[in-house]
Design brief:
This protein has one helix spanning 2-16, and strands spanning 27-32, 34-38, 48-56, 62-72, 75-85, 97-105, 113-122, 128-136. Strand 7 (113-122) and strand 8 form a beta hairpin. Mean pLDDT is 87; it is low at 1-18. It is mainly β and 138 residues long. It is elongated, with a radius of gyration of 23 Å. Strands 1, 4, 5, 7 and 8 form a 5-stranded mixed beta sheet that branches.
Length: 138
């Protein structure tokens, strides 16, 4: 009986796995430039604010994956990370403006300033370009 069970297990293990990768999705991640963001005129200590940002979806093969968010002292560096499907069926999109938001809690005291750097792409030398917003805590 043990031999039959062992043989059945090995048989199922061997023939249930497929090495055919034709059905595998080819996806990679890519930063997508942020076009703009909306902020209040100032922050108040201890409050939570919803920060809205906009980016353009270049084609039907792009979908939102995550938000890159780096915190360094009072500076926040932010970029959209998209999944990009490698496919011949992608269609270019014109003005496909996507609006998303995140919550931000103000932890700095009155008189401090937050700097939000939103990634907007690269220049001709491959250097990152950012639009920066300065918001004072009152």
């Amino acid at each position: 009986m043990k031999k039959t069970l062992l043989f059945s297990f090995i048989f199922m293990l061997t023939f249930s796995c497929s090495l055919d990768n034709d059905n595998e999705l080819n996806v990679y991640s890519e930063f997508v430039p942020i076009q703009s963001a909306s902020f209040p005129d100032y922050f108040e200590f201890g409050q939570i604010y919803q920060i809205t940002y906009n980016y353009l979806r270049p084609s039907t093969c792009y979908s939102f994956r995550d938000l890159y968010y780096l915190k360094e002292d009072n500076t926040r560096t932010i970029a959209v990370i998209a999944h990009v499907l490698i496919s011949d069926n992608c269609e270019p999109l014109v003005d496909e403006n996507i609006e998303r938001s995140f919550d931000f809690k103000v932890n700095e005291q009155t008189g401090s300033t937050y700097f939000f750097k939103f990634w907007q792409g690269e220049d001709e030398d491959g250097e990152d370009i950012f639009v920066t917003y300065e918001i004072r805590v009152q």
